[in-house]
Amino acid sequence: MKGIMVNNQNHAKTGHIGFSWTMLFFGVFVPLFRGDFAWFIISLLLSIFTSGFAWLILPFFYNKTYTSNLVRKGYKPVDENFKALLKSKGIYWENTEISAQSNL
User: Fold this and answer.
1) Is residue 52 in a domain?
2) The dihedral of CA 24, 12, 32, 85: what is its sign?
3) Three-state DSSP class for residue 17
4) CA pair distance 84, 79, nearest whole angstrom
5) 25-48 burial by CB neighbour count: b if 16+ within 10 A, else e?
6) How many domains does the structure of the chain reveal?
7) Which of 6, 8, 20, 81 is the most buried (most CB within 10 A)?
8) Is the pLDDT reported for residue 96 higher than 60?
């Protein structure tokens, strides 16, 4: 599931929750295309050291990690349904203060 998230400067990004099919098929290029350079390096190194086995593991948690990082950077969901989904997955914010809880 995905939803639009906006920061204080009205810059929009798409947040994702659930299994990452794009990460399964395109691997390390997904964080690169999303501008998530830290996870690009992490997934690249994991893929190299595990001979590609990490491509089968990373899709299970990358979307939640990416969306949690967006919340930490100040992005908030626009849609009420996506907001409720994020809260049910342990990603939350309080009033104007935004925080993320990661259950990895």
Assistant:
1) yes
2) negative
3) coil
4) 9
5) eebbebbbebebeebbebbbebbe
6) 1
7) 20
8) no
Q: Is residue 104 part of a domain?
A: no
- Residue 45 placed within a domain: yes
Whole-angstrom distance, CA of residue 23 vs CA of residue 81:
24
Residue with tokens 């990358």: 62
The helix or strand, by DSSP H or E, that contains position 76, with its residue range, turns out to be strand 76-77
Q: Tell me: pLDDT of 49 over 90.
A: yes
Range of the domain at 18: 2-98
- Which range (7-21, 29-43, 57-71, 78-92) has the least confidence? 78-92
Higher pLDDT, 24 or 91: 24
**103 domain residue, yes or no:** no
Q: What letter represents residue 93's amino acid? A: W
Distance separating alpha carbons of residues 30 and 62, to the nearest angstrom: 10
Q: Which residues pair with 16 in a beta bridge?
A: 2
